[in-house]
Amino acid sequence: MNMKTLLPLLLMFASMMLFVSCNSGRTTDKARVAVVISTLNNPWFVVLADAAKKRAEELGYDAVVFDSQNNPSKETEHFDNIITSNYKAILFNPTDAKGSVANVKAAKEAGIPVFCMDREIDVKDLAVSQILSDNYSGCVLLGQDFVKRLKGKGTYVELLGIVGDNNTWNRSRGFHSVVDTYPDLKMVAQQSGEFDRNKAMEVMESMLQAHPGINAVFCGNDAMAMGAYQAVLAAGKADKILIYGFDGAADVVDAIRDGKIVATGMQFPKTMAKTAAEYADRHIKGERDFQQKVPVAVELVTKENVDKYVSYGKAE
Amino acid sequence: MSASKKYILLPVLLMVIAAGVWSSVYFEPLDTRKDKERIESFNPREMVDYFWKHKLDEVLETAIDLSLFDSLLKASPAILMEQHGKSVGVTSRRSFLVKGFARSVGSGVENIPATLPGGFVRYSLLMKNVFGNAARNATDFFHVDDFENTMDFNAVATELNSLILQEVIAHKLDSIPHGVSLRFFGAVEVNSEEIQAEMEIVPLRLEITP
Question: Which residues of B touch A294 (CB under 8 A)?
């Protein structure tokens, strides 16, 4: 055999070895888990994403975070990519209770289990499990504190979150289940601040112009509570209007300590993310018996107990 | 048509159009609208009424004596939580069905003390508005996975609380004479991380005893 015939054979052999080596490398690669988050433009969801990624990595997976930017079409694009890219599970924070259903259905049909975190979808039996804050109970606690501090009378406004998100309504209903039983407490305006600080500030400014004599504002999240506080401060009413939030964000925990905000409902995003990642791991390993809905308790944080808490959790 | 008539007619026309548009639309709060949409497909009151009429007796049979509850709470809280506590999801709170006795203390009171001399905790029957999930969870009849979404599950808690207020608390407050002995069945919630010295029991049934 001369060199002319040997060289192509050697090259072919080398190519085959390279192919085998690449493939064997791929088979030893870690399985991938997708973390799809409604928006990373809010610190709460950044904590949720980081905690889910961290726990999935601790469990031996490669975790990739996708930001849906609060845009259902962006979320669909992510799901399309994930479905064609051999992911083993999706840890999912939906953009919309109804609008995200089709994406979860597509993933299920492709054999990829979905575990919802914090926000739910409005259909049963599509996601393997939905791990959610017990918003309703948390807002019952806030409502009871609200009534106690206002001595059961006065006027207030409410800043709702995103209208298509069930969390918005669970929070509002929990709060109203208490407050509405006090006839001398009157809600004079209710409007969406879309869970956004700037939007909430704008809405609150308008509300203050229309209702300058209000005694309190109930906000569906902490970002809106901070926006409302800015508007109230600018109007020179910071010592007259009680502000309530929900989440347990760092700036609101500090504001409660400083007496700027009265109370918040402390959520535990790390617990939700950790539980979702662990459920995904158990599912990948063959377990199939999961509770469909797993509410995670919310705790009331006020000036009296704020030292027990840090942002999005309890102090160690 | 003269120019002056045009100037008169135009504002009149605009007012008529504006009145037409105004009368063809109406505004309502967002939460009211949401409630209407949900009620079209789900009726929590019907579900709670069914439970109250047909299942409450069966559920109350599982209630444990308040004295047993109290002694376990003092001696072996972990066993009490595990064997008798009901919870939904990840929480340190557990709900229990208990039964015991109390003595009425007259109208206008918010709570009636339960009779348990030397108890580890002081218990009283709640005789005002009922909030939260203690009653729903303690019955262990309603399960979150049976509902399309958590809003419906929570609506059941609200309706059950409202029914308790109407059928047990308001009703009995008017009819119980001062000083009579009462047998009660009720729901109590315990935070296993922070056991309180005083606990309120949500009454599910109150009976005057001889």
Answer: 89-90
